[in-house]
Structures are given as C-alpha cells and as structure tokens.
Fold these 4 entries.
Entry 1:
Amino acid sequence: MTARAADRARYDRATAHLDAPVAIVDLDAFDANADDLVRRAGGKPIRVASKSVRCRALLERVLAKDGFAGIMSFTLAESLWLVRSGFEDVLLAYPSADRARFAELASDPKLAAAVTVMIDDPAQLRFIDEARDGGREVIRICLELDTSLKLLGGRVRVGARRSPLHSPAQVADMARAVARRPGFKVVGIMAYEGHIAGVGDSVAGRPLRSRAVRLMQATARRELAERRGEVVRAVRAVVPDLEFVNGGGTGSVQHTAAEDAVTEIGAGSGLYVPRLFDNYTSFTGRPAALFAQPVVRRPGVGVVTVLGGGYPASGAPGKDRLPVPYLPEGLRYDPQEGPGEVQTPLLGSPADDLLIGDKVWFRHAKAGELCERFDVLHLVEGDAVTATVPTYRGEGHTFL
C-alpha cells in the first residue's frame, strides 16, 4: 500500500460516521509542516498569515508552538475580532477603507495597542484621521515596501502590484510623513516577495519555464536583499525604535530569514500545504487540509460523479486555480466539464472501484480559501476525528 493509499484508508475510517461534503485537517501533517517552517526560519519568529488558516482553533494551536509569534490578518474587521478573541499581536497586511472599524480602533486602548495597520500612501493617513470619530488613541503603522523586480529601466516588472513605495527614499519619506502627523506611530516595515515565495519553480512538464522561474527568483532575491537592507537603514534613521521588519512567505522562508535586515517571517499556507506547493523545490510539505465529496452517480465504465466540488481559488483564472482529485490516486476531471457547481464527473480506472456514497478526497489550490466553503474542520489524528472546530465561516464571519 502506498503512503497516499494509507492516508486514504485513515481518512475514510476517521470520517466513516460523517456524510460528505466534509473538510478535514490532518493534525500530524499540520504539526510536521509547522515544525518545518520553524526549522527553515532559523530562529526568527514566524507571524502566521490568518488568511491561510481561517480557523481560530488552529491559529491558537500553531501560536502555542515555539517559533511562532503574532498574526498577519487580512481585514481590519478580522483584526479587531481576533484581538477581542484573545490574540494580542495582529498586523493587518493590507490597507483598509473601513471607517467604522477605524473609529473603533482609535477609541479603544486595547485594540490600538494590539493592532498594527498597513499604509503606503499619505491619503490613507488622512482617511484614518477622518474616520476617527473623536477617538484619540495612537494608531500603530506598518509601511509596505514594493518588492517587485524591475528590469530594463523599469520597463519590465516582475511581482505583484502592491505598494507604490519601491526605493529607500520613498519609504523613508513615508515614515517622515507619518512622524509629522499626530496620532500615528511607525512601528514596522513589511515586504512580501510574492514572486519568490508564491510562484512554483518546478512545474511538471515545463522544464524551460521552471528554469526561467528559478533564474528570475535568484535574481530577485539578490536585488531585494540589498534593497530591503537599504530601506531598513533609511527608515531607522527616521524611526530609531522600529519594532519589526516582516518579510517572506512559505515558499521563501529560509532565504528571507537569512537577511540581517529581516526580524520576522510571514507564513501560513505552509501549514495546510495546498496543491500550489507541489511545484516548489525549496521545501516539501505534507498535505494537511483536504475535503471530500460523495460519489452520487456511476454514469459508465471508468466514470463516477461526485456532488459539487467546483471550488476555484483566487488569482488569474487557470487550471492551477482548481482543486485536484487526490484520493484515490488516478482520478482526473472530464475536460469538457471540469469541477462543477453541483456535480463533478471524474474519469479514470479507480472510478470502477467506487460505490455510491464513497468519498473522493480533494486538495484545494490555495490554503485558507477552502474554509470559505465549510463551516467546520474535522481534526484527524491517526485514524480518528479527535475534535471538530469552526472555521471563520462557521463562526458567522466572511470578512472578504
């Protein structure tokens, strides 16, 4: 029996009492992935990206481990909810335009002390000031550095379109703009190198593209390491008591941690290890988060149909944004239908061994987005479900 077949047997036994659709997290794999992130971080703390987890119980589990400290959130409403739920250090990784929550933040000492918000434009400071509604608490500010690699005098850009702050001078000027404005304090810098951490460099069947990605990433790492160091020195000249410099992502943990300028690593997807991480050479994780759909039809030889399953992930549309049939091995989508809203035909010889009601296990393309489809996660240890915990959705929250 292969390792994957053994996992399927365990998951089927663990969830035999549960009807599909069902989502699980294999805690043995989750914990092993957490340990691997800590190892690769080389002693620097890891701030957990909540968007990649979207479950309070699992955020609590990973933050109880040595090597993890703080949360990187994705909306201001989520940030305030997390602090009110007992989390103490929350960095909002994206700018917000939530006037009501800024008013709450500015009027509550506990929230203001625990939440750091992201900016990259003076207009965002003005927006926050106008939203204060009389609140006088000092707002903790993190400045975001654009990590993109610019070539040929800027005519070629590689990397996500995030912050407009690219040069050390631009980031330092933004720090000065914050310092001049009462009610704000710069406490950190964030730089997420998505083109390094979030792009697979070993795509099956595409050796030339894979080599090009590796060359690009090597060039980008060198350029960013030098520029990030210059940025931090320039900002510390304005803000000597800067508290943190956050960088990285699951795919680049060990490289980012090697930079002296970086004080902490942001990562989260590497806990669940979704299918997008199958194309990386920098690390090998264990799939921890899976979902199962039930077989509801047997249309013919070599075909079964499962209920639903059309759970595409965010990003540019493409096959790499789709879940993949994982267990039993050897199933594939019908190219004429793909994963559907209410039914998904699956092709392959393993279909002939599946009965009505059997579970087919899938892996989602991106980590935490799976939790937008399920109210609960069943936590599996060995061949048993040992706990059932709510996702954000299960607690009544869909922040985006």
Entry 2:
Amino acid sequence: MSTYDLRVRKVYNWLGSTELMIELYGLEECVGFGDTFLEAKKNLSESIQRWEQTFGLDRLPPPNNRPQLIFIDAPMEKAEFTFINHELLALEQG
C-alpha cells in the first residue's frame, strides 16, 4: 500500500461521532474507517484485498515510482454530514 497515495479525513459516522476515513487516492471505492490511523489503514488494506478479488490487480491504479503522499483533508462539518444523509434518503425514496 505504500506505493499508492492516500487521502485522510475525519468524518462523522452514523452514530454522530467522528472517525478517520482513509481512501486510496485514485480509487475512491477503496476506503477504510477507524478510530485511529492504524485501524483505518488496516481496514483500507482489507478493502483493497476485496477489490483485487473482485476486479483483479489490473484495475488498481498504477503504483507510484516516488515517495508516498498522504493528503489530509479538512474535517467533515455537520452541515455536510446532514446534506449527505438527506441525499441518501432522497435516493432511497425515489
């Protein structure tokens, strides 16, 4: 996993508390969540393994030939969390 860039963000979970989200940059479908960076990174590794089993290695982004970058995004705000949940409800209903 050190050959890929990562995006890290503190987000709200469905309980309303916060946790870390780490996603593989360039493959946002591979995401890990956790209370700590190590826990989220472990869950991301499991997500990448499931991706590989489902779609194969050839669908992963090309690995970097340089040091890994970790992008740290601003924490999610309550308004964004509320908006996302509103959109998800609208999709379910309609």
Entry 3:
Amino acid sequence: MKKLVLAAALTAAASTAFAGNMEEPVMEAPVVVEETAASSSAAGVWIPLVVLAIIAAAVAAD
C-alpha cells in the first residue's frame, strides 16, 4: 500500500513539472504615458481679449 501511495505521489509531482509548452512567452509592449505640454502659457488670455475687443467695438459704435 505504501508503494502505491509513493508511486502516485511521484507521478503527480512529475506531471506538474512538464505543465505548459515549449513556446516562447508572449511579452506585451510596455505602456508609455506622455504628458502633453501646453502650447503657451498665454493660451487662456485670448478669449477674454476677444470679448473685450467686441465690447469695445460695441461701445465705440454707439
């Protein structure tokens, strides 16, 4: 009985050693995250300047 249990244990241990295949592992490319740089620091100034120019033109037209 002990030989049967020992044979079963060795068979189970040997079968797990050959799990898988001999194919090369597939490596995924690393994800690279780049921060986008602002085009200029004065980008948010244009809209208020345009609004001021429209208001100035409306006031000058009266």
Entry 4:
Amino acid sequence: MTARAADRARYDRATAQLDAPVAIVDLDAFDANADDLVRRAGGKPIRVASKSVRCRALLERVLAREGFAGIMSFTLAESLWLARSGFDDVLLAYPSADRAGYAELAADPKLAAAVTVMVDDPAQLDLIDAARAGGGEVVRVCLELDTALKLLGGRVRIGARRSPLHSPAQVAEVARAVARRPGFQLVGIMAYEGHVAGVGDAVAGRPLRSRAVRLMQAAARRELAERRAAVVRAVREVVPDLEFVNGGGTGSVQHTAAEDAVTEIAAGSGLYVPRLFDNYTSFRGRPAALFALPVVRRPGVGVVTVLGGGYPASGAPGADRLPVPYLPEGLRYDPQEGAGEVQTPLLGPVADDLLIGDKVWFRHAKAGELCERFDTLHLVKGDAVTATVPTYRGEGHTFL
C-alpha cells in the first residue's frame, strides 16, 4: 500500500460516521509542517497569516508552539475580533477603509495596544483620523514596502501591485509623516515578496519555465535584500525604536530569514500545504487540509459523479486554481465540465472501484479559502477524529 493509499484508508476510517461533503485537517501533517517552517526560519519568529488558516482553534494551536509569535490578519474587522478573543499581537496586512472599525480601535485601549494597521499613503492617516469619532487612543502603524523587481528602468515589473512605496526615500517620507502626526505610532515595516514566496519554481512538465522562474527569483531576492536593508536604515533614522521588520511567506521562509534587516517571518499556507505549494524546490510539505465529496452517480465505465466541488481559488483564472482530486489516486476532471457548482464528474479507471456513497478526497488550490466553504473542520489524529472545531464561517464571520 502506498503512503497516499494509507492516508486515504485512515481518513475514510476517521470519517466513516460523517456524511460528505466534509473537511478535515490532519494534525500530524499540520504539526510536521509547523516544525518545518520553524526549522526554515532559523530562529526568527513566524507571524501566522490568518487568511491561510481561518480557524481560531488552529491559530491557537500553532501559536502555542515554540517559534511562532503573532498573527497577520486580512481585515480590520477580523483584527478587532481576534484581539477581543485574546490574541494580543495582530498585524493587519492590508490597508482598510473600515471607518466603524477605526472608531472602535481608537476608542478602546486594549484593542489599540493589540492591533497594528497597515499604511502606505498619508491619505490613509486622514481616513483614520476622520473615523476616530472622538477616540483618542494612539493607533499603531506599519508601513508596507513594494517588493516588485523593476527592470529596464521600470518598464518591466515583476511582482504584485501592492504598496506605492518602492524606494528608501519614499518609505522614509511616509515614516516622517506618521512620526509628525499626533495619535499615531510607527512600529513596523512589512514587505511581502509574493513573486518569490508565492510562485512555484518547479512546475511539472515545464522545465524551461521553471528555470526562468528560479533565475527571476534569485535576482529578485538579491535586489530586495539590498533595498530592504536600505529602507530599514532610512526608517530607523526617523524611528530608531522600530519594533519589527516583517517579510517573507511560505515559499521564501529560509531566504528571507537570512536577511539581517528582517526580524520576523510571515507564513500560513505552509501549515495546510494546498496544491499550489507542490511546485517548489526549496521545501516539501505534507498536505494537511483536505475535503471529501460523496460519490452520488456512476454514469458509465470509468466515470463517477460527486456532489459539489466548484470551489475555485482566487487569482488569475486557470486550471491551477481548481481543487485537485487527490484520493484515490488516478481521478481527473472531465475537461468539458471541470469542477461543478452542484456536481462534478471525475474520470479514470479507478472510478470503477468507487461505490455510491464513497468519499473522494480533494486538495484545495489555496489554503484558508477552503474554510469559506465549510462551517467546521474535523481534526484527525491517526485514524480518528479527535475534535471538531468551527471555521471563521462556522463562528458566523465571513470577513471578505
């Protein structure tokens, strides 16, 4: 029996009394992935990206482990909810226009001490001030650096379009604007190199593209390491007691951790290891988050139909944004239908071994987005479900 076949047998036994659709997290794989992230971080703390987990119980589990400290959140409403729930170090990774949230933040000393908001434009400070509604608490601020690699005088750009702050001078200028402004405290810098951390460099069947990605990423790492160090020096001239410099992501942990200027690493997807992280040479994780759909039809030889399955991930549309049939091995989508809203046909000789009611296990393309489809996660240890915990959705929250 292969390792994957053994996993399928375990998951089927663990969930035998549960009707699909059902989502699980394999705790042995989850914990092993957490250990690997800590190893790659080389002693620098890892701030957990909550959008990649979206389950309070699992955030608590990983933050209880040595090597992890703090949360990187994705909306202000989520940040405030987490802070009210007892998480005392929450970095909001994206600027917000949530005026009601800012009013709540500025009026509550506990929330203001726990939550740091993201800024890359003085106009965002204006919005926060206008939203205070009399709240006088100091708002903790982090500045985001644009990590994109610019070539040919800026005519070619490689990297996500995020912050407008690219040069040390630009970041230092906004740092001075924050420092001059009453009611704000600049505490950190963040830089997410998505073109390194979030792009696989070993795409199956595409050796030339994979080599091109590796060359691009090596150049991007060198350029960013030099520029990030210069940015940190420039900002420390304005704010000498800067608390943290955050960088990285699951795919670049060890490279970002090697930079002296970086004090902490961000990662989250590496805990679940969705399918998009199969194409990396720098690490190998264990799939930890899966979902099962039930076989409800057998239309013919070599075909079964499962209920549901149309759970595409965000990003540029493409086949790599679809969940992948994982267990049993050997199933594939019908190219004429793909993953369906209510039903999904699956093709392959192994389909003939499946019976009505059997489970087919899938891996989602991205990490936390799976939790927007399920109210609960069943936590599997060995071949048993040891706990069932709510996702954000299960607690009544869909922040985006």
